[in-house]
């Protein structure tokens, strides 16, 4: 087919050329006069040009076959698109150098265009390496030979242009030299990428630093390109005129360089943070969580990092993501703006002592500070951080004394953590908090705010100073954690951390007994606030539970007739076997003949409108479980909108067929 | 070691074949090229798209999952959030920084957390609940807002045409 199209042109050109040459030779009889005759006659020259063009195109096709084989559609599309730009820019360049216009000049431009297209194709091919499942040795041979050939030709032409410009003065050779210099940078870039890909493929494990190398190469190449373009434009402006044809590529080069530079700077900052500040994830932590990296969907076995928001990823995946964006992929926390773990410099005064106290907490379990307030020690001792993980599942079942066994457990934990060293203790507290999605303020030597996580409601609301300020008096603690508490404790006043008076701050500083007691007091206030928050949450949960129960019972009473039909249709979707299709059709007939459905379809009979039906259904079932009744409405909606039951069967049958066809086709693949 | 994009796509394909979500079918067009998928979406039940099977193509970039894929319906579509040529305009398919309609918040954009399955499920729910604030097909959005009956009629016609049935008589 391809040959059929081109063979016409080949044959036509061959005939024309032979006619022209034959005619000339017939007239002149000798070689030299024949050549002179042909070059002097314009129609003959046109034919010769056409023949030459065809020859070049054929050569191009041959080389393409040799080096690339079959082009992919995307490659071809890009090639055509870029060729258009190249051709228009070449035409613009002609206007500047119209004095130099000659067959040689034209030939050089054609050659340039061809070499350019091969550069583009080589670039695409190397980019494709990463996506291709199988790389054969033929591919390597092709790419390497092509790249070396292109590099040699580029350098040769640059050299030739340089000599020509030096000896004969500025001419169109300037443009060629510059163009080939740009092409050289492209070859270099492609070669670098190729080498990176090859190194990556040699290793069994992913090469972590690859993306960094690629990015840096891009920046360097981008810089060289920008320099070349700027230099060229300046020279052209000095000698000739403003080179319009070079403006677009100059702009593009500038833009891509700027982007690459920006990427490098931002990603370097993020990656730096990641390497130095974010904690490595230990094996136990990995074992405890679902250890699949959400970026690559592969298991994490070491080499993972935890972001300030407690999300865990592969280091290599994070690195490549940070090159695009400096956010957490899961919760979109901006890691460059997020408070950094371990940076004490800008921590507000009150958070640091609180964190310090949290670290030391395990050592101060003597009843001295708790009992004067009249609290039973078991309830005062469980420090708020330790308490949280145990609570959500346990609370509803344990009415009043539920906190006690919990308390004992957590007390032990806190003791262990503190015993392991201050830092570990704080980290332990942080881990314990991960469940509640509240990046504990006390974690890792203190962060400016209580909670940098995505849902830091309580953390933000109940500030340390709120407790110090007097929320202590506002709640009568302990509030027994019961399933139902009639009165919700009022939320504490929202005070800023700056609300601490200097006196109070001073009181908390130092190592004396009263200082420590002041800190503990502060912490206890935090605990009270957290406890009240948990109680509130519990109340919300019970309210929601009750609502759900109500809904479930209500829908259970309204929708029994429709369930059989819907479940069947679901089976129909999944299994997609002929037997189930028959069962569906029968059950469908059943449902459509039930009194409820008939009742629904009659009032809207010929209206052809499904909306009112849905409206009649909605009030009956409001929340999640309403799905079933909606589905039943759908079948009636279909009948209402002019599709009779037999036709509906037909639809389902066709749909089934379509699905089964595809599943078998997919399975065959 | 093959590229990370390829490995992730293979993992997603495996996941989709082992545990296929209801009403969605997706996989590479051919095993040579994992970066072009074909998907079949069934119209959400209880809407005017009920019963339809819509073929779509999903094209993945080389740096997937860092950049979002592109999705295009291969059948005629008349929907406020589908361009006339079939391209799907949904916020989770837009990388942060590009915003063709100017109505999206950063939090709804693409992130590697998303997957083919999530995209297709989002498109199914988009079929059920068009977002007429940032329409890709203005005519469809206008009809959807002003004359729901007519819109649903057109949708049913489309559903029937995807199944190879003649349009309804009325």
From TrEMBL, chain A:
Keywords: Endoplasmic reticulum, Membrane, Metal-binding, Transferase, Transmembrane, Transmembrane helix, Ubl conjugation pathway, Zinc, Zinc-finger
Region (Disordered) residue spans: 367-452, 552-669
Occurrences of domain RING-type (ranges): 293-332
TM segment ranges: 6-26, 46-63, 105-122, 134-158, 170-192, 213-240
Record localization: Endoplasmic reticulum membrane
Record's compositionally biased regions (Polar residues): 658-669
Residue stretches of biased makeup (Low complexity): 367-389, 397-446, 552-594, 626-641
UniProt keyword Transmembrane helix, yes or no: yes
The protein's Enzyme Commission number: 2.3.2.27
Catalytic reaction annotation: S-ubiquitinyl-[E2 ubiquitin-conjugating enzyme]-L-cysteine + [acceptor protein]-L-lysine = [E2 ubiquitin-conjugating enzyme]-L-cysteine + N(6)-ubiquitinyl-[acceptor protein]-L-lysine
Gene3D superfamilies assigned: Zinc/RING finger domain, C3HC4 (zinc finger)
The protein's annotated pathway: Protein modification; protein ubiquitination
Family annotation (Pfam families): TPR_SYVN1_N, zf-RING_2
Topology of this chain in the membrane: Multi-pass membrane protein
Main location: endoplasmic reticulum
InterPro entries, per database record: HRD1_E3_ubiq-ligases, TPR_SYVN1_N, Znf_RING, Znf_RING/FYVE/PHD, Znf_RING_synoviolin
Broad EC category: transferase
Source domain of life: Eukaryota
Sequence similarity: Belongs to the HRD1 family.
Annotated protein name in UniProt: RING-type E3 ubiquitin transferase
From TrEMBL, chain B:
Pfam families in the cross-refs: UQ_con
Keyword annotations: ATP-binding, Nucleotide-binding, Transferase, Ubl conjugation pathway
CDD domains, per the entry: UBCc_UBE2G2
Active site: 89
InterPro entries registered for this protein in UniProt: Ub_conjugating_enzyme, UBC, UBQ-conjugating_AS, UBQ-conjugating_enzyme/RWD
Coiled-coil region list: none
Positions of the UBC core domain: 4-164
Highest taxon of source: Eukaryota
Entry's family note: Belongs to the ubiquitin-conjugating enzyme family.
UniProt protein name: UBC core domain-containing protein
């Amino acid at each position: 087919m391809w040959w059929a199209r081109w063979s016409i042109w080949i044959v036509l050109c061959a005939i024309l050329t032979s006619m022209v040459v034959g005619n000339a030779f017939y007239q002149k009889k000798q070689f030299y006069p024949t050549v002179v005759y042909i070059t002097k006659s314009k129609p003959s020259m046109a034919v010769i040009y056409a023949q030459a063009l065809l020859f070049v195109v054929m050569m191009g096709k041959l080389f393409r076959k040799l080096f690339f084989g079959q082009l992919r559609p995307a490659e071809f599309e890009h090639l055509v698109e870029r060729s258009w730009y190249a051709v228009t820019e070449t035409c613009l360049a002609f206007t500047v150098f119209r004095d130099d216009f000659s067959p040689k000049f034209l030939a050089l431009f054609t050659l340039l265009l061809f070499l350019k297209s091969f550069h583009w194709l080589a670039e695409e091919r190397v980019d494709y390496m990463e996506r291709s499942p199988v790389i054969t040795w033929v591919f390597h041979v092709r790419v390497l030979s092509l790249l070396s050939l292109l590099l040699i030709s580029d350098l040769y032409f640059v050299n030739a242009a340089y000599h020509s410009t030096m000896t004969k003065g500025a001419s169109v050779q300037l443009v060629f030299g510059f163009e080939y210099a740009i092409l050289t940078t492209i070859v270099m870039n492609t070669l670098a990428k190729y080498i990176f890909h090859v190194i990556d493929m040699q290793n069994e494990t992913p090469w972590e630093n690859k993306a960094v190398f690629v990015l840096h190469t891009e920046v360097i190449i981008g810089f060289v390109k920008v320099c070349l373009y700027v230099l060229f434009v300046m020279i052209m402006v000095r000698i000739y005129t403003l080179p319009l044809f070079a403006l677009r590529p100059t702009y593009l080069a500038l833009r891509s360089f700027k982007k690459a530079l920006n990427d490098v700077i931002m990603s370097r900052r993020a990656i730096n943070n990641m390497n130095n500040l974010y904690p490595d994830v230990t094996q136990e932590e990995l074992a405890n969580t679902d250890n699949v990296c959400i970026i690559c969907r592969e298991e994490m076995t070491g080499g993972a990092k935890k972001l300030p928001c407690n999300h865990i990823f592969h280091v290599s995946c994070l690195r490549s993501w940070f090159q695009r964006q400096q956010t957490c992929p899961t919760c979109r926390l901006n890691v460059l703006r997020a408070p950094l773990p371990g940076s004490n410099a800008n921590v507000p005064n009150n958070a640091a002592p609180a964190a310090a106290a949290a670290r030391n907490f395990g050592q101060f379990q003597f009843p001295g500070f708790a009992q004067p307030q009249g609290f039973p020690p078991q309830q005062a001792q469980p420090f708020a951080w330790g308490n949280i993980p145990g609570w959500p599942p346990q609370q509803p079942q344990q009415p009043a004394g539920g906190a006690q066994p919990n308390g004992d457990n957590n007390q032990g934990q806190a003791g262990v953590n503190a015993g392991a060293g201050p830092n570990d203790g704080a980290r332990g507290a942080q881990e314990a908090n991960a469940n509640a999605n509240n990046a504990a303020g006390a974690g890792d030597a203190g962060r400016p705010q209580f909670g940098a996580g995505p849902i830091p409601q309580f953390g933000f609301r109940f500030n340390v100073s709120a407790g110090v300020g007097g929320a202590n008096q506002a709640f009568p603690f302990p509030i027994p954690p019961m399933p139902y508490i009639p009165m919700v404790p009022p939320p504490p006043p929202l005070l800023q951390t700056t609300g601490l008076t200097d006196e109070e701050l001073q009181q908390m500083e130092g190592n004396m007994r009263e200082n420590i007691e002041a800190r503990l007091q502060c912490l206890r206030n935090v605990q009270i606030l957290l406890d009240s928050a948990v109680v509130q949450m519990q109340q919300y949960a019970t309210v929601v539970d009750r609502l759900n129960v109500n809904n479930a019972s209500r829908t259970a009473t309204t929708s029994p007739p429709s369930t059989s039909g819907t479940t069947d249709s679901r089976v129909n979707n999944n299994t997609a076997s002929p037997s189930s299709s028959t069962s569906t059709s029968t059950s469908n007939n059943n449902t459509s003949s039930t009194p409820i459905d008939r009742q629904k379809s009659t009032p809207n009979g010929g209206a052809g409108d499904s909306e009112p039906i849905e409206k009649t259904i909605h009030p009956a079932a409001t929340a999640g479980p309403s799905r079933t009744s909606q589905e039943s409405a759908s079948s009636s909606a279909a009948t209402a909108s002019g599709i009779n039951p037999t036709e509906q069967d037909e639809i389902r049958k066709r749909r089934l067929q379509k699905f089964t066809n595809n599943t078998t086709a997919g399975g065959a693949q | 070691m093959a590229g990370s994009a390829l490995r992730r796509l293979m993992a997603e394909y495996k996941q989709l074949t082992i545990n296929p979500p209801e009403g969605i079918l997706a996989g590479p067009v051919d095993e040579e090229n994992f970066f072009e998928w074909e998907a079949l979406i069934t119209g959400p039940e209880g809407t005017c798209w009920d019963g339809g099977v819509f073929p779509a193509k999903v094209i993945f970039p080389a740096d997937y999952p860092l950049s979002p894929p592109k999705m295009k319906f291969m059948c005629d579509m008349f929907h406020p959030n589908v361009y006339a040529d079939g391209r799907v305009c949904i916020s989770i398919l837009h990388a942060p920084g590009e915003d063709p309609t100017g109505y999206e918040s950063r939090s709804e954009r693409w992130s590697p957390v998303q997957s083919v399955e999530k995209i297709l499920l989002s498109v199914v729910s988009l079929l059920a609940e068009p977002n007429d604030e940032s329409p890709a097909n203005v005519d469809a959005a206008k009809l959807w807002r002003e004359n729901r009956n007519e819109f649903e009629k057109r949708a049913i016609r489309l559903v029937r045409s995807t199944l190879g049935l003649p349009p309804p008589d009325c």
